[in-house]
Amino acid sequence: MTATLFGAAYSVYVRIARLALIEKGVAHDLVEVDVFGPGGPPAEHVARHPFGRIPAFDHDGFILYETAAITRYVDEAFPGPALLPSGPQARARAAQVVAMIDSYGYRPLVWGLFVERIRAPAQGRLPDEAAIAQALPQARTFLAALAALCGDGPWLAGSELSLADLHAAPIFAYFTLTPDAAGLLAPHPGLRAWWQAMAARPSLAATRSPLEP
Ligand SMILES: N[C@@H](CCC(=O)N[C@@H](CS)C(=O)NCC(=O)O)C(=O)O
Question: What would the CATH number be for the domain defined by 3-77?
Fold first, then answer.
């Protein structure tokens, strides 16, 4: 059996897939692919992923892209702890959280806040204040919706760790480096406790991003 993930260690989406593989206990390789290089995504990567994004996954010749599909497949195709709850409502919540993160969380928290607040100065450019101003209310709405959905927790889709937690964690790892995070998370003690528990998992340490201090 060979399981190979193609991507880069700094990527939020690659880290989500790695978290699923690690939490599931699946031996795998990470093959570095640079999609931001001057020539764009390498041709052999576009052959796996026509949109040139990362990650892509290869399990014994079965090629898959789109992170939510990869993590779902990893959960179902390999033995190990179940990464989705069993009841239809809890499963729907987990799927809802994953889709919310993709549609409403990733852009403002990662591109609007982390990239502009932390990466821009590190790259020697001024933060795009308009992008930050646009991201802040979107981040507020997203965090309030997430907090409202996660109910009694302690995990985002109920009493067990699930793919919802793994989808959110790499985004929080970047977002919580920004000076905005403390204020944005102040109204949400449940999310703060969740992030503390999530950040302490060995899978997070094992997938530490090179962009984290
Ligand atoms: N919908 C894709 C999103 C993946 C994605 O956007 N990955 C980023 C890195 S975190 C990427 O490849 N960016 C390259 C680009 O935007 O050209 C998924 O779920 O896998």
Answer: 3.40.30.10
